[in-house]
Amino acid sequence: MCTSFTLQTNQLNNFLARTMDFSFQLNGKPIVIPRGFRWQSQLGFNAVTRFGFISTGRDGTEYVLADGMNEKGVAMAELYFSNEARYSETPEIGKINLAPHEFILWVLGNIASIDELKSNIATINLVHAEISLLGAVAPLHYIVTDKTGTCVVIETNRGMIEIKENPLGVLTNSPELEWHLKNLSNYLSLTPNNFPSKYFLNYKVSPNGLGSGTSALPGGLSSPERFVRAVYTKEFIDKGTTSKETLNAIFHLLNNFTIPKGLMLEANGESEYTQYRVVFNLSELEYYFSPYETQEIFSINLNEVLLNLEEPRVFETELSFKVTKL
User: Fold this and answer.
1) What does the alpha-carbon distance between residue 319 and residue 295 come to, in Å, rounded to a whole number?
2) What residue segments make up the domains of the chain, in order of their start?
3) What Pfam families does the record point to (predicted)?
4) Cα 276–108–27 angle (5° rounding)?
C-alpha cells in the first residue's frame, strides 16, 4: 500500500512524492547509482546505465529499488498492484526481458523524458519472475514524471505493458487507473467552502462551523479512499511560489497518507505502515528522505561528484527523534 503524487510550484518546478507502506521490513536507504553502472537482470540482460540516479532501496547481493530520480529529471515510483498485474510467462527473443522489480533500474538508467519512455517501451518485456527478497513475484504498477510535469502510469492489467496518461498526477494501488478516475464522479460535492444554510420545513439549518464541504471526503486507508483524498488535497492546498514552500506543502500532504504502526494489519497480524517518505525535486535534482524512525528530513543533491562515482553509494541515516527545547 502506497500513495504517490506530483506537485508543481508556480514556476513549474516539478516534484514527485510517495509513501512506502509495507509490512515486510525493507530497510530502504538512499542509494546513488552512478553513470556507467553495469548490472545484469535475472533473465540474463546485460545493461550499462546511461544516466546516474538517486533512489531508495535495499543493498546486498543486488540492489532492490522502489523509487528514484535520474540526472535528466525523470522520477519514478513503483507501487503494489495486487490482483491486477499480469506479466509474460516467458522471455521474448529480441526484447529486453526484465523482472517487474528491475524495470525501475532500466528506466532511471536509460530514459531522459516521458517522450523517450513512450518511444522505447515496446522494447521491454516484463516477465513473471520472483524477487528473491520476498520469495514472490511483485505485482507492481509505476508512476513516472519528468521536468515538464507530464505524468504517466505504466500498468499491465490487460496482459500487456501500457503507458496511460495520468491527468491528475496521483497514484495509489489497485484497481487500475481508469477505475480510480471514474470513481471521482462520486465526490463532486467536495469543496473547501462551507455549505450554505438551508431551510427544512421552514426550519433553518446551518453548518456546525467550518468543514461541511469536506463531509464526503473519505478518511480510510484503502487505495480508493487514499486516491480521492490525494486528488482533493493536491487540488486545494496552497502550493507556494518557491521550491521551499512547495516542499513544505508536500510534506503536509504526505501527513494525510502516512500510516503509523498498528493501524492496518496483514492477515498474519503483521503491521503494514509507512516505512519511509521520499520527495524528488526534479528541477534542482534534490532528494528528500524521511524514515519512520525519525521526524527529521535528510536531503541529498544529485551532483556531478555522485554521478561519477566508481560504484554505487549507500547513505546511512542517523535514526533519532530529536526534540529541540525553545
Assistant:
1) 9
2) 2-314
3) CBAH
4) 25
CATH for 2-314 is 3.60.60.10
The cell for 230 is 490525494
Calculate the dihedral angle through the C-alpha atoms of 63, 64, 68, 69, rounding to the nearest 10 degrees.
30
Strand-strand pairing, 298-301 and 286-291: antiparallel
Cell of 214: 469536506
In sequence order, the 6+-apart residues with CB closer than 8 A to the CB of 49 are 33, 34, 35, 36, 37, 39, 105, 108, 109, 110
Q: All 3 cell numbers of residue 73?
A: 529529471
Question: Which position has the grid cell 548490472?
Answer: 39
Question: Cis peptide before 100, with omega less than 30 degrees from 0?
Answer: no
3-state secondary structure of 249: helix
Q: Which amino acid is it at 101?
A: H
Query: Of the residues 1, 2, 20, 282, which is catalytic?
Result: 2
Q: H or E segment at 132?
A: none
Cell of 15: 516534484
Q: What is the mean pLDDT of each run of 10 residues along the chain (326 residues)?
A: 93 93 89 95 92 91 90 98 95 95 97 98 95 88 97 96 98 98 96 93 92 93 97 96 95 96 90 96 96 91 96 80 50
Known catalytic residue: 151? no
Tell me, what's the pLDDT at 319?
55
Question: How many residues are given for the chain?
Answer: 326
